[in-house]
Amino acid sequence: MNDSKLSSIVEVKRFLQESEVIEFKKRFRKEAYQWIEETLKRFDYLYLGKKEKGLIKKYLKKVTGYSRPQVSRQIRQYRETGRVRVKEYERNKFEKKYTNKDILLLAKIAELHDYPNGASLKKTLERMANTYGEEEYRNIANISVFHIYNLKKTVSYQRSVPFYQETKKAKGRTIGERCKPEPGGKPGYLPVCV
User: Residue 20 burial (CB < 10 Å; 0-12/13-18/19+)?
Assistant: First the structure.
């Protein structure tokens, strides 16, 4: 938008009164922020009085379509830095505790021991680090059983093993099922259900 002909507060006031019924459409953020910065510089916003600042704020709201808090944020940014810029998104990234080398060690141990469950795999890793003193296993020896299963789902683990098979649930079998004893006439019979 070319509004360079508006150069005084009086013209801005007249524009706001005459454009009461006009609605402006929101633009791209980058373009709008750049225009806000140029407007604040053109009118020397930081050196204006309270009433004039209010008029400029209304003008910015009207033209950009932003709400009062949004315009206030952009003005605060201009006051603090001298610029109005779109804030870049910063993703929170956690530091990786287990490297690809550790995942490859996990896959190697799992393959050597015929793909045991997580608890026995953890014990094996602890033994490799503590009992046998293998330094390369020092980091992965502290892993939790639950996290072993998380690492097994990673692409690098699944690429490093010949085949990947999840732990199967026991179907049709119940663990610890109680049943009536059938001693067959022998004393000391322990009931075991199959």
Answer: exposed
- What mean pLDDT is predicted for residues 150-162? 89
CA distance 133 to 46: 67
CA dihedral 103, 104, 110, 112 (to 10 degrees): -160
Does position 46 have pLDDT exceeding 70, yes or no? Answer: yes
100-127 pLDDT tens trace: 999 999 999 998 888 888 999 999 999 9
User: What pLDDT score does 102 carry?
Assistant: 93
d(Cα 40, Cα 46) in Å, to the nearest integer? Answer: 8
Mean pLDDT of 30-53: 89
End-to-end CA distance of the chain: 82
Highest mean pLDDT among 33-37, 92-96, 147-151: 147-151
Per domain, the residue ranges of the chain are: 9-81, 100-160
SS (H, E, C) 69-110: HHHHHHHHHHHHHCCCCCCCCCCCCCCCCCCHHHHHHHHHHH
Cβ distance 24 to 62 under 8 Å?
yes
